[in-house]
Each structure stands twice: as C-alpha cells, then as structure tokens.
TrEMBL record:
Entry coiled-coil feature ranges: none
A GO-annotated cellular component: intracellular organelle lumen
Cited Gene3D superfamilies: 3.30.300.30, N-terminal domain of ligase-like
Pfam family, one: AMP-binding_C
Protein name as catalogued: Propionyl-CoA synthetase
Family according to the record: Belongs to the ATP-dependent AMP-binding enzyme family.
Acetyl-coenzyme A synthetase N-terminal domain location: 11-65
Domain AMP-dependent synthetase/ligase: residue ranges: 70-455
SUPFAM superfamilies: Acetyl-CoA synthetase-like (SSF56801)
GO molecular function, one term: propionate-CoA ligase activity
PANTHER family: ACYL-COA SYNTHETASE, ACYL-COA SYNTHETASE SHORT-CHAIN FAMILY MEMBER 3, MITOCHONDRIAL
Species: Ornithinimicrobium cerasi
Segments forming domain AMP-binding enzyme C-terminal: 519-600
C-alpha cells in the first residue's frame, strides 16, 4: 500500500473508531484544550436525545483562545490582522495586545452588571471590536449573540426579544462598497420595536459616520480608557454552559437560536483546525465571511485563535474593494497558508476576471488550500478556482447547527481524490446516513434525506435557546434516533457525500440562509396582499435568489402601471423588513397560488417549474388549473 493509500485507510479507520467509541476519541481530543477542571466523563447520554459533552469539565474559552498562548510564548505573535480596504486602514494585534483589549472590555461588561449567563447582543460590522466583544463575553461567561449587519431592524428586534440581552454592543455605521450603512438608527428602531429593552448599548463611534447617542448609549472608546476600567479575569464555566446563541433561519419567520456549548465546541474546533483545515499554530489563515455567520464565529474567531494561528479579519468584498484581486492580495501580503470563502464569492471574482489575470499579479506561493462552503459548490466554480490557483480547492459542508464540517476532505491528515460536486467524506464523529421516507438507509447513489445518527459530535447544537421542544420537533422528530439536516443528497460507492439542496423551504442566497417565512411575513403585511409565496430560484451568481408571487385582496384591480408600482413597493418592503441580504428583486402579482387540498402551498413544484426542471405535482393538488395558469409567469414567458 502506498503512503497516501495508507493515510487514507487510517483516516477511514479513525472515523469508524470515532463512531464506535465516541467517548474514547473525544476524550483524547479533549487534551488539546486547557481545562480548569479536566472532564472525567466525556459523554452524558442520560437525557438522550439531549446529549452533553464533557459534563463535569470546567474551562474558559477565552483563556484557551488568548491567555494560554501569551503564557506559552506567543505574546508577540500576531493574533489578528485587520485589513479594511473600505476604510483604507490596516492594523495588527499581537496575542498580548488582543488579550489586553479583551480583558478590558470584559471589565467594561462586568462594570455594566453583566455576569455569567447574561446575554450580550453584538450587532457590528467587520471591525476588530466585534471580535473583542465576543471574546470578552467568553471571558466572563456571558453568552454572546452576534446579529449579522445586513439584517433589518425587524430581524434584529426578533433576536433581541428572544435573547433578552442586558447589553447590546454596536457601532455607528458599517461600510458597504457603495454606501455607508448607519447601524445606530437601525439598532434604535429595533429596540423601539422589541418588547425587551437592554440596559445599555455600547457604541463604537466610527469616523466615517458618527451617530447621536441616547440615554442608554455609552461610548466604546470612553469606556475602554485604561484609567476607567480594570481588566477582568477569566471566569471558569462548565463545559456545557453556553458560549453563544446564533440565530438562523428556519422555515417559519421566527429564527432559531442555535446554542453552542463551551467545552465541546473548543475541543472540536481546535481538532478541526489542524486535522481538517491543515493549519498549525503560528500560521496565517484567511476566512472571507462575516462574524455574523457561523463561519465567522468558528473560523474567523474561535478556531484560529484556539490554535494559536493568525486570523485575517477582512472588511471588504471579494469584488469592488477595489477589484476582483483583493483576496489574492490578502493571501500575498499576509502569507496566508489556507483561505476559506463561499462559492458565490469565487463566482463573483470569476465573472469579473474570467482569465484569472488578477490572480497572476500576486505571489500565492504561501497558499496550500482554498476551502469553499456555505452553499453547493458547482463544478464550474471548482474548476475555475483549481485551474487558476493551482492548489487543492476543497468543498466542505456543514451548517450553523453543527458549527464545524459534517463532511470535508481532511487535508490536515491526508488529501483524498477530489470529486467535483462532493464535499468528500463524512467527518470524524458524524454518522451520516441517507434515509428514505420510511427511515431506512438507501443504497449508494440513491437520493434521500441526509441525516446524522445521534449523538452528534462535540461542538454541535445541544438544543435551541430556551426551546427544547422546538429542537426536538425541528430536528429529531422526523426519524427516530437521527438529526435531520434538512438537506437531500446521496452517498456514492466510495462513501463520498453529495449534497443536492434543501428539502424544505429554506433559501440560500449568496451563502446567506434566509427563511421563506420571514420574507412572506413582510409581504403579507402589505395592505393589498391577500396571500403570497416565496420560492428560491437558481441564480448564476448568488446560487439562489428569492422570487415572490402575491395574490391581491378581493376588489383590488390594478392596471399594468399600478402593478409595477406595487411590485416595487413590495421589493422595498422586504428590504426594509428583512434586510438587503434578502436580495428580492422579482415580485409577480398572480391570480392564485397552487395548493394541496389541505392548504399547503406547492412551493417546491413552483420552484421546479421556475428552474426549468421536471415538476413533481402531488396527487393531492386542489386545482391543477391554478398551477397551469402560473406556468408562463414562473418560466418567465410572461411576468406580472
Ligand atoms: C457552512 C455554514 C454556513 O453556511 S455559514 C454561512 C456562510 N456564508 C457566508 O459566509 C456568506 C457568503 N457571502 C458573502 O460573504 C457575500 O454574499 C459576498 C460574496 C461577499 C458578496 O457580498 P455582497 O456583494 O455584499 O452581496 P450580498 O448578496 O451578500 O449582499 C446583498 C446586499 O446586502 C448588503 N449587505 C451585505 N452585508 C451587509 C452588512 N454587513 N451590512 C449591511 N448591508 C450588507 C449588500 O451591500 C447588498 O446590498 P445592495 O443590495 O447591493 O444594496
């Protein structure tokens, strides 16, 4: 057997062993983390399906991300590089400097009355202060909940009500390539709309646009004055205590608060950084996402810092800041060994630089691997990146719920043959099964529901924030003993996984997960709309974009001009209620929506027609004539 084949067999054996003896595998991996009280028990299954990892261990995640590196000789190593083409600024922070800032901001939070278990909402652009705020929460055992800046006040308000934070940390503005986005008025509006009111808002005043301060607002810079605040020490927490709550979209408008525990997450991320992403302490890593998404939590902030690596925090876009070569500049200038972004980013770059001329202007010799995740990696995008970068381009598949890859090519251990369209093999700890409607595993090559046999490995969600029932009904009730991913796909003869797309009504727009429910709620709130449906249709650049079909209330009869005006109004309404990331561009006023006899709207069937696929029309359809009448609108033969 060649060395490569041996390494591959060893990895497959390791995955099998991790499933047969999870406590053995993760008990050993726990040694990657410094504990105040090392765990004696690895897995508590006494309340299955609510599993708990390292139940009697005590640690502090911030200590593991910062203090221990300072203690062990990395004080002067760069921990974080802030590179912001949109403001024309750059800064570097050593581990000692980042620790100083985090300990001081932890002191600020403590002085504002935040104690272990309290929630702190972070609504910030891609600035170092966002990372400082997250780690400061971890330091004192507070639970952070970061809300992506591209969400509108109504979405932020829903999260404020659910998380009930004592403090909100925000900024005066964010900077998008074409405009300055005033965050503070959106925060004020969200607090106005929410039933829960935070005690304080800590605001980072940015020079690009300062904001008015209100009665509950405090200035970040004043609070951080070393004369005004004493640094806070790390508070030991139970491994099972929540580190953060991150909201994600389900099929309804109400977002789901994904809970992340402390110990399991720290162990899984530290393990993944070296074994799956191949990054060692001291190396530099770029993750081109946003701290508001799980990729940002796990692979901009926690995993690289837990590893003692250097992380690049990029405030810019893959194109337009200033051009489609910006990622290659980052890799070149900061000696990045591995980079991570979403396929949509590469599609945007490819569109502007099809021949890869900007790639060739940079020295990419430091780069070993490009990782892509967040949506399906189409083979054309994979091919372009592979051809132009000359390094392995690795698809990895995971979810907000899991926090780290369910399936990937484990380059830190060995590189398996890449099959375009597949994120390679299920990862250590994930017993991935493809099930048919009755819950039986299907043979290789046959599509079904992708499920994971319980228990899920450390680092994955133990439950939803204050909603065990919804955790069970959303994820565990479809198939007894399995977690339902919500994606469909298949395994091939070699065990490679192929993820074909959502089986529910969740949208994935440019790697942003959005709920049809929240868009529909925004549309339905318009006084002229009787009912509506949102479907996700294929888009060359964003992967998927939403399309809306609305039925007007009886008695409203609009001419062409009136319809166009209403459609534009509805587009604007979704932007204002959900946020610009929803990217709704097309609304069609139609006479009726196709439904089953029990009243379920046939979104999937409409999506298939809009995408030019063969449509599955259920036998339970109420009136097939409604669907036939919609055909030309969905196919684009006729709009409006
Ligand atoms: C593996 C587990 C996971 O799936 S975690 C999720 C992983 N997903 C990601 O990392 C997201 C990947 N996508 C991206 O980073 C962006 O879409 C990239 C590729 C950078 C393109 O960005 P952009 O050009 O802004 O397009 P977009 O579709 O994201 O944005 C649409 C409109 O929203 C706006 N927006 C975006 N971010 C913000 C923000 N932080 N604050 C305020 N506004 C924001 C954009 O400006 C854009 O607005 P407009 O419609 O052009 O006016």
């Amino acid at each position: 057997m060649s060395d490569g084949a041996l390494a591959q067999q060893t990895y497959r054996d390791t995955v099998a062993a991790s499933l047969q003896d999870p406590a053995g595998f993760w008990g050993e991996a726990a040694g990657l983390i410094d504990w105040f009280t090392p765990p004696r028990q690895v897995l508590d299954d006494s309340r299955a399906p609510f599993y708990r990892w390292f139940p009697d261990g005590r640690l502090n995640v911030c200590f593991n991300a910062l203090d221990r590196h300072v203690v062990h000789g990395r004080a002067d190593q760069t921990a974080l590089i802030y590179d912001s083409p949109v403001t024309g600024s750059r800064a570097t922070y050593t581990y000692a400097q980042l620790l100083d800032l985090v300990a001081r901001f932890a002191g600020v939070l403590r002085d504002l009355g935040v104690v272990k278990g309290d929630r702190v909402v972070v609504y910030m652009p891609m600035v170092p202060e966002a990372v400082v705020a997250m780690l400061a929460c971890a330091r004192i055992g507070a639970v952070h909940s970061v809300v992506f800046g591209g969400f509108a006040p109504a979405e932020l308000a829903a999260r404020l009500d659910d998380a009930a934070p004592k403090v909100v940390v925000s900024a005066s503005c964010g900077i998008e390539p074409s405009r300055v986005v005033p965050y503070k008025p959106m925060l004020d509006e969200a607090i106005e709309r929410s039933a829960h009111k935070p005690d304080h808002c800590v605001i980072l005043q940015r020079e690009q646009q300062r904001c008015e301060m209100g009665a509950r607002d405090l200035d970040w810079k004043q609070l951080m004055n070393p004369d005004a605040v004493a640094p806070a020490e790390c508070v030991p927490v139970a491994a099972t205590d929540p580190l953060y709550v991150l909201y994600t979209s389900g099929t309804t408008g109400k977002p789901k608060g994904i809970v992340r525990d402390s110990g399991g997450y720290a162990v899984a991320l530290r393990w993944s950084m070296t074994n799956l992403y191949g990054v060692e302490p001291g190396e530099t890593w770029l993750c081109g996402s946003d701290v508001g998404w799980v990729v940002g939590h796990s692979y901009i902030v926690y995993a690289p810092l837990l590893t003692g690596a250097t992380t690049v925090l990029f405030e810019g876009k893959p194109v337009g800041t200033p051009d489609a070569g910006t990622y290659w500049r980052l890799i070149d200038e900061h000696d990045v060994v591995a980079a991570f972004t979403a396929p949509t980013a590469i599609r945007a770059i490819k569109k502007q630089d099809p021949q890869g001329e900007l790639v060739r202007r940079h020295d990419l010799s430091s780069l070993r691997t490009l990782f892509l995740a967040g949506e399906r990696l189409d083979p054309d995008t994979w091919r372009w990146a592979t051809d132009h970068l000359g390094v392995p381009v690795v698809d990895n598949w995971w979810q907000t719920e899991t926090g780290w890859p369910i399936a990937t090519n484990p380059v830190g251990v060995t590189l398996f043959d890449i099959k375009p369209g597949s994120p390679t093999l299920p990862t250590v700890g994930y017993d991935v099964q493809v099930l048919d409607e009755r819950g039986a595993p299907v043979p290789p090559g046959v599509e079904g529901a992708i499920c994971i046999r319980l228990p899920l490995p450390p680092g994955t969600l133990p439950t939803l924030w204050q909603d065990d029932d919804r955790y069970v009904s959303s994820y565990l009730s479809a198939y007894d003993g399995y977690y339902l991913t919500g994606d469909g796909g298949y395994l091939d003869e070699d065990g490679y996984l192929y993820v074909m797309g959502r089986t529910d009504d969740v949208l994935n727009v440019a790697g942003h997960r959005l709920s049809t429910g929240s868009l529909e709620e925004a549309l339905a709130g318009h006084p002229s709309v009787a009912e509506c449906a949102v479907i996700g249709v294929h888009d060359e650049l964003k992967g998927q974009v939403p399309r809306a079909l609305v039925v007007l209330k009886g008695g409203i009869d609009l001419d062409d001009e009136g319809r166009r005006r209403l459609e534009a109004e509805l587009v604007r309404r979704v932007r204002e209620e959900v946020g610009p990331v929803a990217a709704l561009r097309q609304v069609d006023v139609v006479d009726g929506l196709p439904k089953t006899r029990s009243g379920k709207i046939l979104r999937r069937t409409m999506r298939q027609i809009a995408d030019g696929q063969e449509a599955a029309v259920p036998s339970t359809i109420e009136d097939v004539g409604v669907l036939e009448a919609l055909g030309p609108v969905l196919r684009g033969d006729r709009t409006g």
